[in-house]
């Protein structure tokens, strides 16, 4: 009986001591350096599984809070970037704005100006202003031809033999040695080559009339060797007044005994040759 009582007391003491103390530590590895010692938690310690579940439930909440905070902070962080738009220099902005300010000042005319018909005098001046350049060399040739013809009519510019002379009605004629003239026909052809129209009549005195400039004596041509006023003292280049088809007009300043005058010449294309047909002084 006592033996059973002792045994029961001993078993009760062992059970109580086991409940009041920790469980025996166990060794899970054979290597001392990698040993993993585990300690059994006390009876009143909180359940690790419940704690981990609570932490797992709080984690999404924390993550959600962080995402909300990041989304709220994102516009605030992006706002300065949107304000960092580069601005053009003030000088460039002024130049860019200038055309927009000037554009309204340009306005199309409300109506076309009326056409004005030029008077004949204005048309003539306009033609002169156009300066028909292709006629200028022709005009210069005509001026030279007229000057040559006029000096011959005036008693010079012909080669003669002063020792071989003939008296005719009080005038002295000298024998012609000029290669251009050997007969009256040569003189007539020369005049018609240089001029036409009214000027042919004007210079016909070279070979016709009571006292012609050239005259035949005994089959030889003689020249009236008497100096007379002749030639044109041109002052500058010709100015073309008008041109139409086979004719044109020009003028040039000349020096005369009465001062400088305007010498106006009308020319025509006679059989492919430009000739002076008339002239006058103004």
From TrEMBL:
Comp. bias intervals (Low complexity): 41-105
Residue ranges, annotated region (Disordered): 29-128
Biased composition range(s): Polar residues: 29-40
Alphabetically ordered keywords of this record: Signal
Keyword Signal belongs to the record: yes
Cleavable signal peptide: 1-20
Protein name: Uncharacterized protein
Organism: Ruminococcus flavefaciens
Source species taxonomy: Bacteria, Bacillati, Bacillota, Clostridia, Eubacteriales
